[in-house]
Amino acid sequence: MSKIIAFFQEVRTELEKVTWPKRDDLVGAVVIVCILSLVFAAILGFMDSAITVAIHWLIR
To answer: Within a domain: residue 41?
Structure first.
């Protein structure tokens, strides 16, 4: 049991050393991730549609 307690004490000590991002930095990163996710989703959707059309054209 003492090893478990020591582990969590060490975890807490290490988490106190972490430099957490400021709110503005975090919001900016979230916005960038959302925009890039939408861009990549659009690209993949277009590629999927194009491949589907090409396959249907080849099957005919």
So the answer is: yes
Amino acid identity for residue 54 in this structure:
A
Structure tokens given for 14? 């290490």
Domain containing residue 55: 20-60
Sorted by sequence, the CB contacts under 8 Å of residue 52 that are 6+ apart come out as none
Domains contained in the chain, number? 1
**pTM of the predicted model as reported, rounded to 2 decimal places:** 0.66
Kindly list the distances between the CA atom of residue 45 and the CA atoms of 4, 27, 33, 34, 55, in Å, as whole numbers in the listed order: 48, 27, 18, 16, 15
Residue-wise pLDDT tens digits, 3-57? 999 999 999 999 999 999 999 999 999 999 999 999 999 999 999 999 999 999 9
